[in-house]
């Protein structure tokens, strides 16, 4: 009778050319193929656990070097001797207060495959906002936060945290959400909440700077450049660590609407890029606390 051996390995990628990491997938060529194999990703290494239904089989301890945060990787399937394992798709919660155009662009990117994740819930500050209507029409769950006199069905901060945890949300993306995020949520999701702001922070940010007010202030200042900023969220308005920015020129005869439209186009592009990096675990933190994004094709490229 054959005995089943379970082997846990650490595979050094540079030493074993048959093992590689490409985008969201890990490829390993093991001979003979195991009956099952599970990969587990840590900050620097990919560990694997392989099971064999072959007697007296001993698998050497090896490791694969990687540059990703802790993440479980599920086996997709076998092809002869090749194992293909794919990083779990992330679950996203998006917060809106208005029309939710950034929400729509992110949702469309998840469907098209540009973002390795899924929008599992929309959190709206107003039940009748355009973002909430879009979510309902596309089958995305909608919850209200915060609870107010006008929105009595809204959740409390603790209720919001409990709901997002129940849905196993990985990342929270604020997309035109005008309420201050409660400290309970920030503590529950450290380094996992990002916001987009329509100016080049730290300029033209803070309480009261949102929407058209931002663009009006930029034009009135005489600034020659503006653009969207995506930053991690802390306990204050627009003061978290900056993750990504795009520069948009301010033209001499720009109206508020002209500048707003030009910045919004870049918001849509930039948020998809950042959401993809989050879902692929390509965010790293410099020693001084500044977050950077690793390139998808070239991990040594930082921006």
Task: Please describe what this structure looks like.
23% of the residues lie in helices and 30% in strands. The chain has six helices and 19 strands. The protein folds into two domains: 83 residues, no CATH class; 204 residues, Formyl transferase, N-terminal domain (Rossmann fold, 3-Layer(aba) Sandwich), CATH 3.40.50. α5 packs across α6. Strands 1, 2, 3, 4, 5, 6, 7 and 8 form an eight-stranded antiparallel beta sheet that branches. It has 303 residues and is α+β, with helices and mostly antiparallel strands.
CATH structural architecture of the largest domain: 3-Layer(aba) Sandwich
Q: Percentage of helical residues? A: 10-25%
- Name the CATH homologous superfamily of the largest domain: Formyl transferase, N-terminal domain
CATH fold descriptor of the largest domain: Rossmann fold
* N- and C-termini, Cα separation: 56 Å
Uncertain regions spanning at least 5 consecutive residues? 1-23, 41-45, 52-85
Give the SSE order as H and E letters: EEEEEEEEEHEHEHEHEHEEEEHEE
**Mean pLDDT figure:** 81
Instruction: Give the C-level CATH assignment of the largest domain.
Output: Alpha Beta
- Count of individual helical segments: 6
Number of domains: 2
Strand residue content: 25-35%
Structural class designation = alpha+beta
Please provide the count of β strands.
Answer: 19
């Amino acid at each position: 009778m054959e005995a089943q051996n379970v082997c846990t390995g650490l595979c050094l990628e540079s030493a074993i050319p048959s093992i590689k990491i490409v985008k969201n997938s890990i490829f390993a060529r093991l001979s003979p193929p195991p009956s099952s194999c599970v990969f587990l990703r840590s900050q620097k290494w990919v560990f694997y656990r392989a099971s064999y239904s072959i007697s007296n089989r001993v698998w050497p301890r090896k490791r694969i070097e990687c540059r990703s945060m802790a993440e479980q990787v599920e086996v997709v399937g076998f092809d002869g001797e090749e194992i293909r394992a794919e990083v779990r798709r992330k679950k996203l919660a998006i917060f809106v207060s208005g029309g939710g155009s950034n929400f729509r662009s992110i949702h469309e990117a998840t469907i098209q495959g540009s973002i390795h994740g899924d929008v599992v819930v929309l959190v709206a500050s107003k039940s009748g906002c355009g973002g909430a209507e879009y979510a309902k029409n596309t089958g995305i769950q909608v919850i209200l936060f915060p609870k107010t006199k006008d929105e009595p069905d809204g959740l409390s901060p603790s209720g919001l945290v409990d709901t997002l945890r129940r849905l196993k949300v990985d990342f929270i993306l604020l997309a035109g959400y005008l309420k201050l995020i409660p400290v309970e949520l920030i503590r529950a999701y450290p380094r996992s909440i990002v916001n987009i702001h329509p100016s080049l922070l730290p300029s033209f940010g803070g309480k009261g700077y949102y929407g058209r007010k931002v663009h009006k202030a930029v034009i009135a200042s005489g600034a020659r450049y503006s653009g969207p900023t995506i930053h991690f969220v802390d306990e204050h308005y627009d003061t978290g660590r900056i993750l990504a920015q795009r520069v948009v020129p301010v033209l001499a005869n720009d109206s508020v609407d002209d500048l707003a439209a030009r910045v919004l186009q870049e918001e849509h592009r930039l948020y998809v890029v950042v959401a993809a990096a989050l879902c692929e675990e390509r965010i790293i933190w410099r020693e001084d606390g500044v977050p950077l994004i690793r390139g998808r094709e070239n991990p040594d490229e930082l921006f």
